[in-house]
Design goal:
By secondary structure, the chain is α/β, with parallel strands linked by helices.
């Protein structure tokens, strides 16, 4: 009898040991029995994934997950049980509530439904094993969005370079034509807004350095209030509530203004019959736990909320609010509920990108019919000299701080190389009007052929990225071998830091000009190089 007891003890010990491995497995795992898929076992990773749903052992999957109706999971379980064929899902989206009182969020799961069989070979259950790959999926989506945003920004910068430059010439030409000049200035203003949008795309993709300064956010908000009231129109009212003694924050003033305009625009669109927008700012100290992130509605896959001192900006509207499935996708790039042509779906994702690049946090809480609350947290900064907002300091108009160029005493000969025909013509026109002799070439090889034929140039202006053959750096290296005293100015629709990060292209600032640029910027850079 003692041998039987020893065997039973060993079996019990082995079962306990195996259940311990099951419980501690990093993959989420559960076993369901019968055609109703009644939970028999579920490990810690599975319970963590599904959130607070009470005791699930003994309950059916449909009882535990009423929010999964219509998402296809029940049907796949039924099919696996009926056919005995396993189902394998890769990065399958699932809209799930982590807690009953929280809005659902979209997660991505890679998993297998593996039918189990009894001693007679009959199917008696389903083993579910998988991983939550939300973070990886989000990273892949963000990388794709980053690449798209960066590419779009580059192409738009090339187009804007032509628009900005030619409208400058048009304004000069129409000096005596008041009406025509006013139309040209409207075009110039629109081009400036386009340039700002491109800057935001690059900042969103984290491929443009932010102009971070220590800022007093109370002054920023107060300076913006008139513009925000104008944006809301006659149907909306704005209430500004700024606490006294706001801590300073380190942020790009222009980007925070644009983020608030985006949020106010979303609020206006949600309050189609009118409403109230409240903009609050106060100081808050946050403990490092998950509760604060959950309360502010931090998006799935967000950077962990660090404890510390923050200045909190809260934007509250009493508009239509968002359905749970819309809220779950609100931060996804290019997701929009607006009609075609009325929104690119980049507003909230750009706000998130900018805030997180500023080492802050963002969250949204919304319910249908009860409005939306957006919370921005920006970390407290030391308080040296404080910068006011760009709107406060300049009235919203860009200032031209380019120093006046020196006189071009000598008639320099400049070689311009760009694969875009319109850009070549544009730069040729600018340089000619500035008094230089200019020659254009479409390719690096064409430029080098001119130099090999004996033409001499004082300056080479070349685009950095050119399809086929040599790029701008390779052209400059080859050209300087033919003419050692040749000066070089590089241009690109990408900022220099993007080229340095992506292609290892590093160059002194005085040898680089980002498109779009204005005539005065080009003249100042050219004359600085020619007189160096």
């Amino acid at each position: 009898m003692s041998g039987s007891h020893d065997g039973d003890a060993r079996s019990a010990h082995e079962r306990t040991r195996l259940l311990g491995f099951f419980e501690q497995a990093p993959s989420f795992m559960t076993i369901m029995r019968g055609p109703e898929h009644r939970f028999e076992l579920a490990n810690a990773a599975y319970r963590s994934l599904i959130g607070g749903r009470g005791e699930i052992i003994g309950r059916t999957v449909r009882e535990v997950f009423p929010d999964l109706v219509g998402q296809g999971f029940f049907e796949r379980l039924d099919e696996a049980y009926a056919t005995g064929e396993p189902f394998v899902g890769e990065a399958v989206p699932i809209v799930l509530r982590s807690k009953p009182d929280q809005a659902p969020e979209t997660r991505y799961l890679s998993f297998v439904y593996q039918p189990t069989r009894d001693e007679r070979g009959a199917i008696d259950g389903i083993l579910v094993v998988g991983h939550d790959v939300t973070a990886l999926k989000r990273a892949q989506r963000m990388e794709a969005a980053v690449r798209l945003a960066s590419g779009i920004a580059h192409d738009f910068n090339n187009l804007l370079a032509i628009i900005v430059g030619n409208v400058e010439l048009l304004i000069e030409h129409l000096e005596a034509d008041t009406y025509g000049r006013s139309l040209a200035q409207l075009i110039s203003s629109a081009a400036d807004r386009g340039t700002t949008l491109v800057s935001r795309l690059l900042a969103y993709s984290q491929r443009q350095r932010l102009d971070n300064r220590v800022v007093e956010l109370g002054a920023v908000l107060e300076a913006m209030a008139p513009a925000l009231r104008h944006l809301l129109g006659t149907n909306g009212t704005l209430t500004l509530e700024v606490a006294r003694g706001l801590w300073p924050v380190r942020v790009d003033p222009a980007q925070i203004e644009i983020a608030l305009v985006d949020l106010a625009t979303n609020a206006r669109d949600a309050m189609r019959r009118g409403g109230r927008l409240v903009l609050r700012a106060d100081n808050v100290s946050i403990s490092p736990n998950g509760e604060a992130a959950a309360q502010m509605g931090a998006p799935a896959g967000h950077a962990p909320l660090r404890g510390g001192d923050y200045v909190r900006i809260v934007v509250v509207d009493d508009g239509s609010g968002m359905m749970p499935e819309v809220l779950a996708s609100a931060f996804e790039p290019f997701f929009t509920t607006k009609d075609f042509g009325h929104g690119a779906g980049l507003g909230l994702s750009m706000v998130q990108g900018f805030i997180e690049q500023s080492e802050g946090h963002v969250g949204v809480v919304s319910e249908p019919g009860r409005g939306t609350t957006v919370t921005l947290l920006l970390p407290r900064a030391p308080a040296p000299a404080i910068a006011r907002s760009s709107a406060a300091s300049s009235g919203g108009a860009p200032s031209d701080t380019t120093p006046p160029p020196t006189s071009n005493a000598t008639r320099a000969h400049i070689l311009v190389v760009d694969d875009e025909a319109t850009m070549r013509r544009h730069v040729l026109t600018l340089l000619t009007r500035l008094g230089y002799d200019a020659t254009v070439a479409a390719t690096a090889e064409e430029a080098l052929e001119r130099m090999r034929a004996g033409e001499r140039f004082d300056l080479l202006i070349t685009d950095v990225i050119m399809p086929g053959g040599m790029n701008g750096r390779e052209l400059a290296d080859a050209a300087c071998k033919l003419q050692a005293d040749l000066r070089v100015l590089y241009t690109s629709g990408y900022p220099a830091e993007v080229l340095a990060e992506r292609d290892g292209f590093a160059v002194e600032a005085r040898h680089f000009l980002t498109k779009p640029y204005r005539k005065q910027e080009l003249q100042a850079r050219v004359e600085a190089l020619l007189t160096a």
